[in-house]
Amino acid sequence: MSTRLRALGAVAAIVLLTGGCAAGTHPGAAAVVGTTEISIGDVDKTSQAVSTALGQNYNTAAALSDLVNNAILGQVKQDKSISVTPAETATAAKSAVGDDEATFQKFQSDTVTRDFLNEVATAAVVTVKLGGGTIKDLQDQAKLQQGLLAVKDASKDIKVSVAPRFGQWTDGKLDTSVSGSLSVESDQTAAKRKAAADAAQQAQPQG
Q1: What residues contact residue 104 under an 8 Å CB cut-off, 6+ apart?
Q2: Any idea what DSSP says for residue 139?
Q3: Where in the sequence is the signal peptide annotated (predicted)?
């Protein structure tokens, strides 16, 4: 099994055309999706817990990318009033780990991995339902493709911003090749920098 869960194949393939990095992040936030904040602590905990459950490395970039996707699909679920039952989540969760009961139980034994897997599963169900499918169509590529297109349209107004240390969220995915020094400065940071510069100038002795 790869370091990415099977069900993430559909979710990670979404090209979302979100709003880029317009909003900026708060101190301690790894990303902000709409009004949902994902903390650096959330990313670290998820990376460590999922690595333990999978028995292989699941790095912070992968964790952040999937947490952002989960948050986006959670917002789409709410906006579109899509119903996902506990039974559907459970079925999709087992599919996400390749129907490997031992791995599934490892995820269930820890609250961090259990909640994460449930979010991944819910995101997969939302995607396939937007494509006109049902829980039985999780492996139906046609339904998933229709769902991806529907998610792209439904999420076009959801703003995503990522802390510079992690890169930038571009065209529906995390670009870790972008240096923090090249990231777009947020409005809040620009305002603080300007205020500090103005204060320093006023403090200088007048000639």
Answers
A1: 93, 94, 97
A2: T
A3: 1-22
Q: Are 50 and 103 in contact (CB under 8 A)?
A: no
Report pLDDT digits (tens) over 31-57.
999 889 999 999 999 999 999 998 889
The phi and psi torsions of 196 (rounded to 5 degrees) equal -65, -40
pLDDT in tens, 112-162: 999 999 999 999 999 999 989 998 888 888 888 888 888 888 888 888 888
Report the C-alpha gap between 125 and 77 in whole angstroms.
Answer: 10
First to last CA, the chain: 70
CA angle 43, 162, 179 (to 5 degrees): 105
- Cα–Cα distance measured from residue 168 to residue 146, given in angstroms and rounded to the nearest whole number: 27
